[in-house]
From TrEMBL:
SUPFAM superfamilies: Ferritin-like
Protein name: Ferritin-like domain-containing protein
Source organism of the structure: Enhydrobacter aerosaccus
């Protein structure tokens, strides 16, 4: 299948629509939480940010959809916009049901430069999802929340995975249509957008640190979540979870490759580093 062809467009749009899941956030099997689980959920400091991000995502995708004339792309994008709006609804239902402290902030103005915003948003989702895959695995392993609750988030993670697969195919298709697809250009474009996404993520981390100062995630909660945390293992989890989740998609479609390749290189370097440091005492004694 030639990237940028009509066959490519039909394949990634059809796949996106065929993997749609119907559900209503209000009727999901929300579990009754005991006091300890409820406290853990309430001390997570980023629900307000997640709520805002999903509402903003819905608004950006909906506004971008309006600018697209190709009916096949438009229909698939409209579906993504509805899914993002449903994510916001899901978070809203959770906030109300469990009494979480996450007020609704007014949305920023997203009306200008919508093409750029949509691309920033798409690459941002690729970065968030790649790191989210690793964090979500830690959440399952540490049993930070009841499994019924994590199962609900699993639905959301699956949809985000579909979004990023759709996005990288849309990006490659769009660039090819403009005659821009080349082996050298795509990594350069990706690098540019990932740098912007990372900068935004760091800005956000700084802002939430300032906002949450004084009402920090209690030390016990952090240690439960991050007990035995080790950067290399986290990166391995991100990488392997990415491969596992991407394995569910049609092999003909493109999938995000920039971050997995970067992680693969970093992991190889870390393994080499570890092997060398493990060998070091032996070589010292033998010499
Ligand atoms: Fe979302
Ligand atoms: Fe998304």
């Amino acid at each position: 299948m030639k990237i940028g062809s009509q066959e490519h467009r039909d394949a990634f749009c059809r796949h996106f629509e065929q993997t749609y899941t119907e559900y209503d956030p209000h009727t999901l099997p929300w579990p009754e939480l005991d006091e300890a689980a409820l406290q853990r959920l309430r001390t997570v400091p980023f629900w307000a940010e997640v709520f805002y991000t999903e509402r903003r995502a819905g608004a950006i995708v909906a506004a971008f959809t309006e600018t697209v004339s190709d009916p096949v792309l438009k229909e698939a994008l409209a579906l993504q916009g509805r899914e993002e709006a449903r994510h916001a609804d899901l978070i809203r239902v959770m906030i109300d049901k469990y009494g979480l402290d996450a007020p609704e902030r007014p949305l920023e103005d997203i009306s200008d430069n919508i093409d750029r915003r949509f691309k920033d948003f798409g690459f941002g989702e690729c970065l968030d999802s790649f790191l989210g895959f690793g964090l979500f695995k830690i959440a399952w392993q540490s049993e930070f929340l009841p499994k019924e609750m994590l199962q609900i988030f699993e639905t959301l993670m699956y949809e985000e995975t579909r979004h990023i697969v759709f996005f990288v195919n849309w990006m490659a298709y769009t660039e090819a249509q403009r005659g821009w697809l080349s082996r050298t250009l795509l990594p350069v474009t990706s690098f540019h957008y990932y740098t912007r996404a990372l900068r935004r993520m760091m800005g956000l981390a700084q802002r939430s640190k300032e906002m949450n100062d004084g009402k920090n995630f209690a030390a016990t909660q952090v240690s439960m979540f991050l007990d035995g945390f080790n950067f290399r293992r986290f990166l391995e989890d991100c990488y392997s979870e990415n491969s596992r989740r991407m394995g569910a998609f049609d092999p003909e479609l493109l999938r995000p490759s920039f971050l997995p390749q970067l992680a693969e290189t970093a992991l190889k370097a870390l393994r080499l580093w570890n092997t060398r440091s493990n060998l070091a005492p032996d070589s010292a004694t033998s010499s």
